[in-house]
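At this stage, I wrote out one protein's amino acid sequence and its backbone structure tokens, and that material follows here:
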Amino acid sequence: MSLRYLTAGESHGPGLTAILEGLPSGLSVTVDLINEQLARRQMGYGRGGRMKIETDKVEITAGVRHGMTLGSPIALWVANRDWKNWAEEMSVAPGDFNLKRQVTSPRPGHADLAGGLKYDHRDLRNILERASARETTVRVAVGAICRRLMTEFGVKIAGHVTTIGGVDTTLSELPPPDEIAKRSEADPVRCIDPEASKRMIAKIDEVKKKGDTVGGIFEVIISNLPPGLGSHVQWDSKLDGRLAQAILSIQAIKGVEFGAGFGEGRRPGSEAHDEIFYDDQNRRFYRKTNRAGGLEGGMTNGEPIIIRAVMKPISTLYRPLHSVDIETKKELSASVERSDTCAVPAASVIAENVAAFEIARAFLEKFGGDSLREVRRNYEGYLEQVRNY
């Protein structure tokens, strides 16, 4: 069975649910390792007031017994602590409620208007509640379990921010993944360049005073993967395509590239590709450069996967843009919801975890088994095959 998951829940509803199916039995999983990732998602300079209200904690309600996965579906629940203030507004039960938070002025750049037209809703809250990035909470919870699986096989995932509001890092060379993770974790905007971090924070403060928002760019690096995850044989089995779709599904992400990315369009072929060498001592093929970003023909090639993504500025502004009331058709300012000034650091954490799911899915497609022991046996047999190639 392929690894898969579904999520459900609204931003101001009772909570968020996810069901993860297809994970092998025998993997140690605790709420603490999931909560660690949820806490990382809530950090970052530029976050809004909701992060002071919500302290996300997960409950595992199925699929784990005594700290070990059973091989059955894993059910996850994260309560919305702000629900008590929205119980009537977001009630599941029918009733004659005096709704005070209806939304009829769609925000430019958000799902409000397109969703209202598609689902025929007159209160756009019915769209924005589900379209909200709050939904990524349980996607991170799912990803936390998947990255736990990948640690069993030495895979490392690290993310960092490279640009906020036009302020770029000036580092010409990246440190090792462990160092990236350590330095980004200690920085308010998850930037590993201390000088650039200070300028990014200043930029966030500047736009916040204006009631504006700011976007940016981040990278995710996934290392210690074997060659051959994913496949070239069908469009939907190509791992780079699947990773791109996963990253682009994060709210406000507008573009994804791998390795040298769009820069490849400016180089001749002689400077665009990674030459292949062989290490006799370790019996492996390797490349001295990684312009491909660890993926060739839709498959991992043994080098680190390097994903870069751009996040647009958050579409809820405290200095709202021009809009039109869907009922009166009169011009007015867009609605204002509680929002962030900058969510790029959080997006980098979310991206790490949605990428972890896709990596785990491809890994289990290649080495799948019903138990962790069976997966490990398949994995080790394949590594020996590759060494003897």
Summary: DSSP finds eleven helices and 17 strands in the chain. The chain has one domain: 4-387.
